[in-house]
Design goal:
The chain has 291 residues and is an alpha/beta fold. The protein has helices spanning 17-28, 40-51, 67-80, 104-132, 154-174, 192-199, 214-221, 236-250, 257-264, 270-278, 280-290, and strands at 8-12, 32-37, 57-61, 86-89, 135-140, 179-185, 233-235.
Length: 291
């Protein structure tokens, strides 16, 4: 069954990395898609891959770090699609430098792309979602600035903390209008951003392919998560570690999620077990979808 049949989605940062993986996952599940990125060649390649699944895909090559560019993006989208069922705010940039060394102009551009573009896209698209009677907004945040904190990434961490706060506050504002807002904090996903950070001197203990996190976005975009998931923040690092632990203990054997929860109580610390117990629908989906 295709989980997004007939849906229309706008995905920023859709030319590569997480955005590309999510766009392809959505296409497999029947959604028509608009992908946004600064690099036209990457958009064109991703478009070809998406269209292999028999859905419509348009590309919007644009730099979203200015308000005018965001307005142009939204205009181009609605010139091609009458509705927007799913908005994925995922475009972003990072840095690895001290506050003193990082130029103000670059910090401003980073915050414009990582936060203001999200806010502006939501502001411009939200009236359409309200008019059509429903909508689904998924924001890409980060554990950096929301779960853990480190030096040399002050601007980036602040922008991602702002995204998380915006998502949770926005859900309170629009929830009664049948709009869902959720936030995903990806772990160590192997993207161009990670490659840049490695080049700048940061170390990563693992490199997770973007395709592994794409089903998490699908879960939030689909009706499967509609009843419970509103204003939630999902820490992908924790999710991924628990999934690996489950697979190590159960292999390919099929168990009901309630059985897995009961059997995992002695194998996880309190924080991880609580996360598993409270998100049984999510783990059931991820286990069935990724196996």
């Amino acid at each position: 069954m295709k989980l997004l049949e007939g849906k229309k989605a706008l995905i920023t940062g859709g030319g590569r990395g997480i955005g590309k993986a999510v766009a392809i996952e959505f296409a497999k599940n029947g959604a028509d898609i608009a992908i946004v990125s600064r690099t036209e060649s990457e958009l064109n390649q991703t478009q070809k891959e998406i269209e292999n699944y028999g859905v419509r895909c348009i590309t919007i090559p644009i730099d979203l770090s200015s308000i005018d560019a965001v307005k142009d993006c939204v205009n181009q989208y609605f010139n091609n699609f009458e509705q927007c069922d799913i908005l994925i705010c995922n475009a972003g940039m990072t840095h690895f430098s001290t506050v003193i060394d990082y130029p103000l102009e670059k910090a401003e551009k980073l915050f414009n792309l990582n936060f203001i573009s999200y806010y502006a896209l939501i502001k411009l698209i939200l009236p359409k979602m309200i008019k059509q009677g429903e909508g689904n907004i998924i924001l890409t945040s980060s554990p950096q600035g929301t779960v853990y904190f480190s030096s040399h990434k002050v601007a980036y961490s602040a922008s991602k903390a702002a995204v998380m706060a915006m998502g949770k506050c926005l859900q309170l504002e629009v929830g009664r209008q049948n709009i869902r807002v959720n936030i995903i904090s990806p772990g160590a996903i192997h993207t161009k951003m990670m490659e840049d950070l490695i080049e700048w001197g940061q170390n990563f203990p693992e490199k997770v392919p973007p395709e592994e996190i794409a089903p998490l976005y699908l879960f939030f975009a689909s009706e499967v998560s509609k009843r419970k998931y509103k204003g939630q923040v999902i820490n992908h690092l924790m999710l991924n570690e628990i999934l690996r632990n489950i697979k190590e203990n159960f292999g390919d054997n099929e168990f009901e999620i309630k059985e897995i929860v009961n059997l995992m109580e002695d194998k996880l610390n309190k924080e991880y077990f609580t996360f598993l117990r409270k998100n049984q629908e999510l783990f059931e989906f991820m286990l069935k979808y990724t196996l």
